[in-house]
Amino acid sequence: MQKKKIPIRKCLGCNIQKPKRELIRIVKAPDIKNEQGEIIESGEISLDLRGKKNGRGAYICFDINCLRSVRKSRRLEKTFSCKIPEDIYDNLEKELSAE
To answer: Are 58 and 6 in contact (CB under 8 A)?
Structure first.
């Protein structure tokens, strides 16, 4: 019998590869576009604890220091290719510290 393959992802904060289940996924929902293809509304950025939300994902450890490192170096902005407001980082930090 074959072993089931375990997906491996890299944390944006510490750059350590870990199994997907040991990391938190931060997801940017798809942008909303009109008929001409112009972006009407940018996608929402949120924590995806189950790993099932639709959109582009990035992973961090359950460590609050990894999120602070990502915030300081602006790695999420580079990953998602968009400007991320400070209040989103604050909300992510509150959600992460509550767990």
So the answer is: no
3-class secondary structure, 47: strand
Nearest to 58 by CA among 75, 33, 36: 75
Decide if 82 is inside a domain. yes
6 found inside a domain: no
**Each residue of 27-77: pLDDT tens digit?**
998 888 888 888 888 888 888 878 888 899 999 998 889 988 998 999 989
Overall pTM > 0.90: no
Parent domain of 88: 13-98
What is the spatial distance between Cα 85 and Cα 71, in angstroms, rounded to a whole number? Answer: 11
Q: What is the DSSP letter of 63?
A: -
The CATH number given to whatever domain includes residue 56 is: 3.30.1230.10
Please give the order of strands across the beta sheet that includes 56-60: 45-48, 24-28, 56-60
